[in-house]
Known about the structure:
With about 850 residues, the chain is α/β, with parallel strands linked by helices. It is built from 14 helices and 73 strands. Helix 11 packs across helix 12 (about 775-790). The strands form four sheets. It has a 43-stranded mixed β-sheet that branches. The chain has a 23-stranded parallel β-sheet, with helices on one face. It has a five-stranded parallel β-sheet with strand order 68-69-70-67-71, sandwiched between helices. The longest helix has 22 residues, at about 590-610. The radius of gyration is 39 Å and the shape is elongated. Strand 1, helix 1 (about 20-25) and strand 2 (about 35) form a beta-alpha-beta unit.
Amino acid sequence: xxxxxxxxxxxxxxxxxxxxxxxxxxxxxxxxxxxxxxxxxxxxxxxxxxxxxxxxxxxxxxxxxxxxxxxxxxxxxxxxxxxxxxxxxxxxxxxxxxxxxxxxxxxxxxxxxxxxxxxxxxxxxxxxxxxxxxxxxxxxxxxxxxxxxxxxxxxxxxxxxxxxxxxxxxxxxxxxxxxxxxxxxxxxxxxxxxxxxxxxxxxxxxxxxxxxxxxxxxxxxxxxxxxxxxxxxxxxxxxxxxxxxxxxxxxxxxxxxxxxxxxxxxxxxxxxxxxxxxxxxxxxxxxxxxxxxxxxxxxxxxxxxxxxxxxxxxxxxxxxxxxxxxxxxxxxxxxxxxxxxxxxxxxxxxxxxxxxxxxxxxxxxxxxxxxxxxxxxxxxxxxxxxxxxxxxxxxxxxxxxxxxxxxxxxxxxxxxxxxxxxxxxxxxxxxxxxxxxxxxxxxxxxxxxxxxxxxxxxxxxxxxxxxxxxxxxxxxxxxxxxxxxxxxxxxxxxxxxxxxxxxxxxxxxxxxxxxxxxxxxxxxxxxxxxxxxxxxxxxxxxxxxxxxxxxxxxxxxxxxxxxxxxxxxxxxxxxxxxxxxxxxxxxxxxxxxxxxxxxxxxxxxxxxxxxxxxxxxxxxxxxxxxxxxxxxxxxxxxxxxxxxxxxxxxxxxxxxxxxxxxxxxxxxxxxxxxxxxxxxxxxxxxxxxxxxxxxxxxxxxxxxxxxxxxxxxxxxxxxxxxxxxxxxxxxxxxxxxxxxxxxxxxxxxxxxxxxxxxxxxxxxxxxxxxxxxxxxxxxxxxxxxxxxxxxxxxxxxxxxxxxxxxxxxxxxxxxxxxxxxxxxxxxxxxxxxxxxxxxxxx
Length: 842
């Protein structure tokens, strides 16, 4: 029979009430109830028998405060003890406020523990039994070192409990402790949210770990954890971190905003995750190192700062039906001797390579999708990777690259819309390609570099921007049942010393079937171009009209014509050229700068003629300005001026951009940049949008190689070429700073300011005069108002916009005059206000 004991201050509680809680406990028998009146009771309580302490007037009305010292406010030495609706204050945040001894038992319900931890100790060996603790709807706050510490043979359960404001770890499990936590809310800890050591076990359900200073959930040694339907938010380190031989199983968990990696698995640990998501990790989404293993199914990893998935050492990763989206580096990055298996996975919109395999790592991809990445799949390991039934679409660079010395088997792969070559097999690489398609890539469908000899069977290449298959010097391989359709360049290009074998290949609707360099040795067996047998020595052309037999044009002649080498430029007078410069509309500051440069170079020339040493002078320039501000026009004039001064041989202008300098595969950029540079020798190399060679997040971008090549060539040919780098003002600072050699060679920047409305009107009038049109006064006034009201946003083209408006005016005038039965000469040349485009159409 349960006896009720009342605790109340003197004068309250009636006859028989105890004046301290300790007195009531000592008087109670096992199973008795101690009812406490409201107030703060400063005591060190020892519960050595099965008693229940409860607040008479509900939660918050009773506080048990530990006196100053090292003893806990409540010490539990007996079984089946309980506290209901009571607040416990510790004397020191770094000490226990509630202490449960080995073999004891405690239930805390609707309680708060503040300024000290709840410490539960169990027997050190299993024969000593267990310590049982239950916390329901409790709050632990303000402790130091740990909020809840379970050590040894403890069995604990938390329900609807909050642990917050801990200067240390929120919950610590050690020894053989076991915790079952349901709807736990753990937040604001300076250390890890939960830490498991020894052989402890955790089951976490429908819980939130938020704002920890270190890992959200840390497992060490031989610990195990199962977490379901839980969230780990903004941890100061990893979201879930496994080391030692720990094991964790995560189901439907969300990890967001980790300062380090979202999931970390190290040493010999094992992680299994299903239906989980990792977002906005400060490092990797998933990091697996050592000989650890991770197995993920139906998971998502979004917006990682480093590679979304990184494996190193001898780690193993198995992912099925997972999604990687966004991220500043690779989607999957495997190094060392790691093994990564991807089945039915998708990787989209990462800044670098979708799947990167280096050193001696091995990747197995089946039924995967890679889209919107810089490069699609990069295999740099000789250990032998496999890619089957996988799609690579919309990459900014190469679709699939097999790097120097690497090995891969590709079966049923589809590469579509690559911004450069579709498939590149680098020097000495081993590649077996079976089936699949390469379509709509901006570069060649497949590139085989020197020394590579791939085995290709049943590959279809459609609409490549360049060659269907490009074989570099000394390349080879066997191509069986290859189809190439609608190539913009020769379907098959074979360089000097290359000896590929083409069997049963079909070429259709291509600009040309076969292009060979001197010394090429292709073997053609049962190959056709638009149904006509294709043989080496009499390469059949297959132009776009589908009619074979037209003789291909000479590449060397075409190149000479494109470079403008067919004739030397005419001699021009310096004064006439300066007059042409000053006739340009606007650009007053630029005209002054160019005039100063001309005077400086005249002095340099006269000193040289007098046998005096020339002062140090860099003729290379940066043109900083928005589109349509006359940069190309002034660059062309600048070259002619230097020719007139005798400082350049030819003074011609070669205009290039990133696509003309940066290659599609390793080893291509240097020769491509050199070829463009050599075309400009004796004149001006004008690099439009030069900042694109040094993107903000360069990573492994080939643009940096182009810049390095330019710097060397500018030094080697400093007296025979002028380089002008042009682009938006803000971006050009980044370009100049991308390579130490650029700042010393580009010593002067010319700023091209946007045109004022009146200057834009003058440009239109100049265009009109050249084409024998005249603006009426009203049209001129309305045109000024149009330019004045025109938004100066991203689509504004300065002089280009003025020229476009002039063209629109002539088209509208033509429509208007066509309706006149017998227009006069004045009507034929007049541009009126009616001919102006309406602002809404701009």
